[in-house]
Amino acid sequence: MVKILHAADLHLDSAFTALDEEHARHRRQESRRLVERMVSYANEQDVALVLLAGDLFDSGDIYAQTGEELASALGQCRAQVVIAPGNHDYYAPKGAYERICWPENVHIFTQDVLTRLDFPSLSCSVYGAAFTSPAVDSAAVLDGFTAPEDGWVHLLLLHGDVGVKDSRYRPLRPEQLQKTNVDYAALGHQHAFSGLCRAGSVVYAYPGCPEGRGFDETGEKGVLCGTVAPGEVSLQFVPLCQRRYELLRVDVGDREPEEAIIAALPPETRGDVYRITLTGETDRPVRTEVLHQSLCDRFYALEVRDETRMKRDLWEKCGEDSLRGLFLQQLRRRYESAGEQERMEIERAVRFGLAAIDNREM
Fold first, then answer.
1. Contact, 159 vs 109, CB < 8 A?
2. 213 and 137, same structural domain?
3. Which residue among 92, 180, 248, 271 is least packed, with the fewest CB closer than 10 Å?
């Protein structure tokens, strides 16, 4: 049995384009410290192997400080560290990986063919390959490979795209993973936690990125940690992100916008990045800049968007010579003879119908 930590897609030195320049610079500094938190956690948990499944860097053009701090942090890890470079940080002569002075406990796959790395003291083998260019159109790297049944723990470490047939980033098929006969396939590339998946007897997973970088990477982010034994995998998702990106839609049609927003928020948001979108029908225009100024101290960063609509008479244009007019005229006749409950249902039907006619959301 081997205790592992599986992480991927750190994307160090990302631009953080959703933030202003000051916040983006601060987030880049914070993301470097993510590795220190990850190493600290691995040491606390007595992890024996740290598996990093690619895209440690957002590109091959990294700050020297980033490489130095990454190598220093990994050197403090009591575990052996294995890296399989991905499409953003592909292995290349004179590239980022070659410019860094790595500690002795770090092992990097440098070829685009499957290579075996043995850890006899752990009775464990790690098989992996690197991206050596920004794109890999096939998964031929797994052709003909089957791990032996010798009582050792067999792990696969790859950056690739499971189930995406035409992917340019090593399109892997579940049936290929099944034929590998490994105990666990530690994958990178997809930025959301996949859960533990199965391809026959082979367990595989994406941990997702450990820190969100934009509103397409929302919610809790982290790593996987646990044990792998021959035929047995026990891994748990461990939240590790310092800040979360969150999307929140708030209907402000029946109350003051600030009051509605505060009521919709969870108890603690001060460390997180929020995009709040206001919806519903209002009597007067929403002043997003005033709301931002009033609420921004509740968040690390805040964006407020206005998608409200001005209230109008529900039956406006009833009877006019148009699709809208004919639609309203039909329902108005039923409305006038309906009871209270049915009137509420008809009003809702009218609002849905008008939204459809206007090609907008309800």
1. no
2. yes
3. 271
Q: What are phi and psi of 99, to 5 degrees?
A: -85, -10
Residues 264, 174 share a domain: no
CATH number, residue 182: 3.60.21.10
Bridge partners for 30 per DSSP: none
What band does 310 get if pLDDT is binned at 50, 70 and 90?
Answer: low
Give the pLDDT band of residue 40 (cuts 50, 70, 90).
Answer: very high
The amino acid present at 46, given as its one-letter code, is D
Q: How far is CA 98 from CA 9, 60, 101, 109, 322, in A?
A: 19, 10, 8, 12, 69
Inside any domain, residue 335: no
Query: Are 134 and 85 within 8 A, CB to CB?
Result: no
311 vs 98, higher pLDDT: 98
Alpha carbon 340 to its chain's center: 47
User: In terms of domains, do 30 and 152 share one?
Assistant: yes
Furthest C-alpha separation in the chain: 84
198 and 138 in a common domain: yes
Burial class (CB in 10 A: 0-12, 13-18, 19+), 101: exposed
Burial of 135 (0-12, 13-18, 19+ CB in 10 A): exposed
Q: Give the model's confidence band at 84: pLDDT under 50 very low, under 70 low, under 90 confident, else very high.
A: very high
Q: Which domain holds residue 75?
A: 2-239
Q: Which helix (H) or strand (E) holds 323?
A: helix 323-336
Number of domains in the chain: 2
**Do residues 216 and 282 share a domain?**
no
Q: Which helix (H) or strand (E) holds 3?
A: strand 2-7
